[in-house]
C-alpha cells in the first residue's frame, strides 16, 4: 500500500576507509538501503546507527519498551544495547552506521536522546530530494570529495528529520488513518478506493469514515481534491502544460469539470492563476 521513495535494488556501501578532504562533524562508516526488508533484527550493536523507515510499519523494542513504527520515521541504535525491531510484513529502510565513538557526540549535539529513541517525520517527501541525491553520490563514491558530501548530507538528513518530526499516533486507529492518508497523499492522481484501503487496514468503511473525520477534519474526497488543486497550482506556474494536459495529469476525465473545480476552490480560473503567478 505504500509508495516507495526510490525504486532500486538493495545497496550497502562501506565508506569508512575512503580518505576525507574536510573535517566534518561525523564520518559515515557504512550506509545501506533495503527496498523490501522483511526480516526482523534481534541483536546488540557495536556501532551507533540511524535507520530511516521510509515506507511500511512494524515495531521497535529495547529496554522493556516497545514503540509502533509508522513510516516515515527514524529509529536509532545505541552501541552495546540489545534491540529488537522489524516490519509487520515489509518496509523500506535507509540506515547510517557510525563508529561507536561518535555516540556521545550525537547526544551532546541533541541529535539523540534515550527519552526519544524514535521520532516520526511529517512526510516522506520531506527527505525525498536528499535521499535521491545521496543514492547518486553512493553510486559515484570514488569521485573526489563524494565521501565528504555523503557525510554532510547524512548529517543534514538527520537534522531535517528532527526539525520536521511530528507526534507519534496516540492510538491504533490514528496509526491506520495516518497510513491511509500517506497513501492518499502519494497517489492522489489515481482513483483511490478508500473503502478497500479501510478493509485492508482492518477497519469497516463506517469506522474509517468516522476516524478519518476526527483525525483529518475533512472528508477523504475533499482531502484528495485539495491535493489535486495544490498540484494544479504548481503545474500551472512551473510548467507550460495546457490546462487540458494538467487535468489529465491529475486524473480528471473532463477538462471542463477540472476548470470549474479549480475556479470554485482557488477563486480564479486556471489561466488567471498562471498569468498572475508566472515566474519572471
CATH class of the largest domain: Mainly Beta
Number of domains: 3
| Alpha plus pi helix count | 10
The helical percent reads 40-55%
Overall pLDDT = 89
Tell me the total number of β-strands.
11
Provide the β-strand percentage band.
15-25%
H-E string: EEEEEEEEEHEHHEHHHHHHH
Spatial shape: globular
Structural class: alpha+beta
How would you explain this protein's 3D organization?
The chain has 280 residues and is of the alpha+beta class. The chain folds into 3 domains: 11-166, Jelly Rolls; 172-217; 222-276, Orthogonal Bundle (Arc Repressor Mutant, subunit A). The chain has 10 helices and 11 strands. It has helices at 103-108, 128-139, 146-163, 172-186, 194-200, 205-216, 220-238, 243-249, 255-266, 270-276, and strands spanning 11-14, 30-37, 41-44, 48-55, 57-62, 65-70, 73-77, 82-87, 91-98, 118-121, 165-166. The strands form 2 sheets. A 7-stranded antiparallel beta sheet has the order 1-2-9-4-7-10-11. α2 (128-139) packs antiparallel against α3 (146-163), α7 packs across α10 and α8 (243-249) packs across α9. The mean pLDDT is 89.
Question: How would you summarize the topology of this molecule?
Answer:
Blueprint: E1 11-14, E2 30-37, E3 41-44, E4 48-55, E5 57-62, E6 65-70, E7 73-77, E8 82-87, E9 91-98, H1 103-108, E10 118-121, H2 128-139, H3 146-163, E11 165-166, H4 172-186, H5 194-200, H6 205-216, H7 220-238, H8 243-249, H9 255-266, H10 270-276
Antiparallel strand pairs: 1-2, 2-9, 3-8, 4-7, 4-9, 5-6, 5-8, 7-10, 10-11
Helix pairs in contact: 2-3, 7-10, 8-9
Amino acid at each position: 500500500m505504500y509508495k516507495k521513495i526510490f525504486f532500486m535494488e538493495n545497496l550497502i556501501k562501506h565508506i569508512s576507509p575512503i580518505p576525507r578532504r574536510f573535517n566534518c562533524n561525523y564520518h559515515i562508516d557504512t550506509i545501506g538501503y533495503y527496498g523490501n526488508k522483511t526480516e526482523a533484527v534481534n541483536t546488540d550493536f557495536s556501532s551507533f546507527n540511524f535507520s530511516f523507515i521510509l515506507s511500511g510499519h512494524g515495531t521497535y523494542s529495547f529496554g522493556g519498551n516497545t514503540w509502533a513504527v509508522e513510516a516515515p520515521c527514524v529509529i536509532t541504535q545505541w552501541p552495546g544495547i540489545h534491540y529488537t525491531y522489524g516490519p509487520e510484513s515489509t518496509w523500506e529502510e535507509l540506515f547510517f552506521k557510525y563508529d561507536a565513538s561518535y555516540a556521545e557526540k550525537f547526544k551532546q549535539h541533541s541529535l539523540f536522546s534515550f527519552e526519544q529513541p524514535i521520532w516520526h517525520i511529517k512526510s516522506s517527501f520531506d527527505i525525498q530530494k536528499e535521499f535521491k541525491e545521496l543514492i547518486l553520490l553512493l553510486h559515484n563514491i570514488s569521485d573526489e570529495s563524494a565521501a565528504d558530501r555523503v557525510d554532510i548530507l547524512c548529517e543534514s538528513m538527520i537534522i531535517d528529520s528532527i526539525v520536521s518530526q511530528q507526534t507519534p499516533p496516540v492510538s491504533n486507529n490514528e496509526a491506520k488513518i495516518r497510513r491511509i492518508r500517506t497513501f492518499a497523499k502519494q497517489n492522489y492522481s489515481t482513483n483511490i478506493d478508500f473503502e478497500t484501503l479501510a478493509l485492508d487496514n482492518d477497519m469497516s468503511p463506517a469506522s474509517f469514515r468516522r476516524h478519518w473525520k476526527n483525525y483529518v477534519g475533512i472528508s477523504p474526497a475533499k482531502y484528495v481534491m485539495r491535493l489535486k488543486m495544490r498540484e494544479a497550482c504548481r503545474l500551472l506556474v512551473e510548467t507550460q502544460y495546457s490546462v487540458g494536459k494538467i487535468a489529465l495529469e491529475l486524473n480528471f476525465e473532463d477538462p471542463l469539470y477540472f476548470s470549474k473545480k479549480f475556479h470554485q476552490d482557488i477563486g480564479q480560473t486556471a489561466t488567471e492563476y498562471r498569468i498572475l503567478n508566472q515566474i519572471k
